[in-house]
Amino acid sequence: MPKRRQRAQLPRQTDRVWLVYDGECPMCNNYAQYLRLQQSVGEFVLVDARQGGPIVDEVRRLPHDLNDGMVVKIGDRHYVGHEALHVLALLSTDHGAFNKFNRLAFSSPLISRFTYPLMKAGRWVLLKLKGVAPIQSHD
Fold first, then answer.
1. How far is CA 7 from the centre of its chain?
2. What CA–CA distance (Å, rounded) separates 47 from 19?
3. SS3 call for 74
4. 3-state class of 63 per DSSP?
5. pLDDT digits over 4-37, tens only?
């Protein structure tokens, strides 16, 4: 009998989910503000990467440039870019139109992988139009 592909699974249950994103990007900021996870996780913490802090410092130690995308931290695990988008969709509830759309659109790892570069390009365009510099790599 052929083996079935395993479906993406939710990360282990945790009390706190961190989302590190670019607070100067209107698209990123709106996504972070509209996403509602409190009903499916204990605490959902939004962190503007431009403001710094311990979580931002931790993310900066990863082999990842914050200008390349958002990061979700759950427990000791970090999800970057399209993986972060996918995990957030899996954690989303069906409450509200935005969460329903987010869950439907990005719960597929394949769709997340292909749409994230478009979203990232949109971020760069919006930041250029606003005249906002990239996030500093290190202090």
1. 20
2. 6
3. strand
4. coil
5. 433 445 555 557 889 999 999 998 888 888 776 6
CA distances from 110 to 46, 80, 85, 101 (A): 25, 15, 11, 16
Q: Are strands 16-21 and 43-48 parallel, antiparallel or unpaired?
A: parallel
Query: Is pTM beyond 0.85 here?
Result: no
Domains of the chain: 16-130 (3.40.30)
Q: What are the helix and strand counts (H, E) for the chain?
A: 5, 4
Using CA atoms, how far apart are residues 121 and 137, in angstroms rounded to an integer?
19
Q: How far apart are CA 79 and CA 91, in angstroms?
A: 13
The pair of structure tokens assigned to 108 is 């597929």
Tell me how far the alpha carbon of residue 122 is from its chain's centroid.
15
Judging by beta carbons within 10 Å of its beta carbon (0-12, 13-18, 19+), is residue 29 exposed, middle or buried?
Answer: middle
Strands 43-48 and 71-74, by their bridges, are unpaired
